[in-house]
Write a structure and sequence with these properties.
322 residues; alpha/beta; TIM Barrel; seven-stranded parallel sheet; two-stranded antiparallel ribbon
Length: 322
């Protein structure tokens, strides 16, 4: 059931950015008009040149997160949530990005939470994402109404979310090469079941437009790195303050991969490491057939700050063009 990760392993390392209303605007206090203005100013050609300059073979961008603002339109989402004007951008930034990246041989991958936007109460309720076993790590903002008839697995929500993901995947087709799903902290409750909705149906929705697309489900910061399911192709590998040693290429059949941040936090701050550390750790991990993705800040207009460009440029010799 797994997709071929050879190209991913050969790439060795890539770049990730948190392009969100939380990082480039005012989070849930952003207006749809403001969000569209910001997304419209994203210069995809300039970002493509920056990624080419540092030698990146693949690039991750967030579609959206806790605010409920997304950088691509989605009719399924709008029909289920019913917020007007839509908090999905009119511009399909994902489409414009892969149009700019494809000629350069840079593969586009995308990030999305596994659950409804936790700071949008309307979306949470209408998508039926209101677990009775709620915990702060699941929904950061309390006050939503428990929707009647919701089972512990959030089956109706899962089907809604899979439909939303399927629309994006089908539209983008083979231009999107992978998905990183965040927040799969309650895998036993929600996904580890023999009948759908489960990890298998979730992965199938993400691969609807590209069966070769790589998929992973994030269990949170886990050291050593783990794989949650046979239906993921690589490990999510979120790290923060600890930097694990790569055990080799595979973790229970999934490509070993970690995701860390070069700034002071995800998508924020100044570089926290020396170039020597970034280069040395990346080189060691790649030498053991692992893959590492480095998160860096990004501005509203799509520009990566120069100090991070300098760090990434040091890695240029380590990866290989596909």
């Amino acid at each position: 059931m797994r997709s071929d990760t050879d190209w991913f392993k050969t790439a060795g390392w890539g770049v990730f950015t948190h392009y969100l209303a939380e990082t480039v605007a005012n989070g849930e206090n952003t207006t749809p008009e403001e969000w569209n203005r910001i997304v419209n100013q994203f210069d995809v050609e300039r970002l493509a040149r920056q990624l080419e300059e540092v030698g990146a073979v693949y690039y991750f961008i967030t579609i959206g997160q806790i605010s409920g603002y997304y950088c691509s339109p989605n009719q399924t989402y709008d029909s289920l949530v019913g917020i007007k004007p839509s908090k999905c951008s009119r511009r399909d930034l994902i489409r414009d990005l892969y149009t700019a990246l494809n000629p350069l041989g840079i593969k586009l991958m995308v990030y999305l939470p596994s659950h409804a936007p936790s700071r949008d109460l309307t979306a949470i309720e209408r998508l039926k994402c209101t677990p009775t076993w709620d915990a702060p790590i699941w929904n950061l903002k309390k006050g939503y109404k428990i929707v009647e008839g919701i089972d512990e697995r959030l089956s109706e929500f899962q089907r809604n979310w899979e439909a939303i993901v399927r629309e994006w995947s089908t539209r983008w087709g083979k231009n999107v090469h992978g998905w990183w799903f965040d927040g799969c902290y309650y895998a036993e409750k929600m996904y580890q079941h023999s009948n759908p909705p489960n990890f298998q149906s979730f992965a199938a929705a993400a691969k609807a437009g590209n069966p070769d697309s790589l998929v992973t489900f994030n269990p949170g910061v886990k050291v050593p790195v783990i794989s949650l399911t046979e239906y993921e192709d690589y490990t999510a590998g979120e790290i923060s303050l600890a930097f694990p040693v790569c055990p080799g290429r595979w973790v229970n059949g999934a490509q070993f991969h970690i995701l860390g941040y070069l700034g002071s936090w995800w998508g924020k701050g100044k570089p926290r490491f020396s170039i020597e550390f970034v280069y040395g750790y990346t080189k060691d991990l790649i030498s053991k057939e692992g893959v590492i993705t480095w998160d860096v800040p990004i501005a509203g207009d799509g520009q990566i700050p120069q100090p991070f460009i300098e760090q990434l440029k040091s890695l240029k010799e380590l990866g290989s063009k596909i």
